[in-house]
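Tokens as discussed.
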């Protein structure tokens, strides 16, 4: 038996009339009758009995109808899933994330993508740059997001967002009274930088801003991430420069002020993925990434 025979059998079982079934199937009556007879010969069982009012399913016919409907339903579902996967509308997307980006940009981006493609399973992996690159090469990751990624021959690095830098300062500190805070004022204050685990990273970017202005930062603490850095600001340990996304961290006593410098200090976020990856799902996700418009985070 093949799928066409099963579909024709199901239609005949629903109609219990050869003429009506043939019309639905766009067949003439003799070919339909021959198909049913071939199935009965293969099964060694009668599927229908003729009655004055039409056809009636036998016990074998009823059993086959139940299985045939289930098989055809599974085939249709498999075809639908395969078609959706081919269009990038279904499947699994493994996304590498990091630090401060999870406060604003990435969650909003992923929610937009999920709304457009609700049948895609999104799995998040918190990884440093080197881990993301290795996971991409081993195909454990579909795409990653990070900062300060060096060029790689087998990895595409694409800028997706540019954020202004802001200063996190305790509300009782004199600098909190200023509308903007410049690097000269910050060079006199204890500075908290992060992360302390990656070089070159955001901490080096911040220190480079001071060096570019001929200043020396007074580093008081080097910590793992933005949450720890802003928490220390809340406790009065010092001041922190951070991407705007970290303004989503509303900790007691902490206020945020624009960082004043020329040119305006910013930090890029990039996505990285395998060069030549033809995955329809990755392509669909990149289309959303490229069209996504991030929402600025209010400073206070």
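Sequence:
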């Amino acid at each position: 038996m093949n799928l066409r025979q099963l579909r024709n059998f199901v239609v005949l079982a629903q109609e219990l009339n050869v003429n009506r079934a043939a019309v639905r199937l766009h067949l003439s009556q003799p070919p339909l009758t021959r198909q049913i007879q071939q199935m009965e010969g293969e099964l060694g069982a009668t599927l229908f009995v003729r009655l004055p009012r039409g056809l009636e399913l036998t016990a074998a016919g009823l059993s086959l109808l139940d299985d045939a409907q289930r098989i055809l339903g599974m085939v249709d579902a498999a075809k639908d899933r395969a078609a959706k996967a081919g269009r990038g509308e279904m499947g699994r997307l493994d996304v590498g994330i990091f630090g401060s980006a999870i406060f604003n940009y990435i969650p909003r981006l992923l929610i937009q993508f999920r709304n457009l493609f609700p049948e895609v399973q999104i799995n998040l992996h918190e990884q440093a740059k080197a881990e993301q690159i290795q996971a991409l090469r081993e195909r454990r990751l579909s795409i990653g997001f990070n900062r300060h990624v060096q060029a790689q021959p087998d990895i595409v690095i694409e800028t997706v967002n540019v954020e202004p830098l802001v200063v996190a300062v305790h509300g009782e500190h004199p600098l909190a009274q200023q509308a903007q805070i410049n690097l000269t004022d910050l060079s006199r204050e204890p500075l908290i930088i992060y992360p302390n685990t990656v070089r070159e990273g955001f901490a080096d970017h911040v220190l480079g801003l001071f060096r570019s202005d001929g200043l020396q930062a007074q580093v008081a603490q080097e910590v793992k991430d933005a949450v720890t850095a802003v928490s220390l600001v809340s406790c009065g340990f010092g001041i922190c420069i951070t991407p705007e996304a970290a303004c989503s961290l509303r900790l007691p006593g902490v206020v945020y002020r624009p960082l004043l410098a020329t040119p305006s200090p910013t930090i890029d976020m990039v996505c990285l993925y395998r060069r030549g990856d033809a995955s329809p799902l990755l392509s669909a996700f990149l289309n959303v990434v490229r069209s996504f418009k991030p929402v600025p985070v209010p400073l206070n």
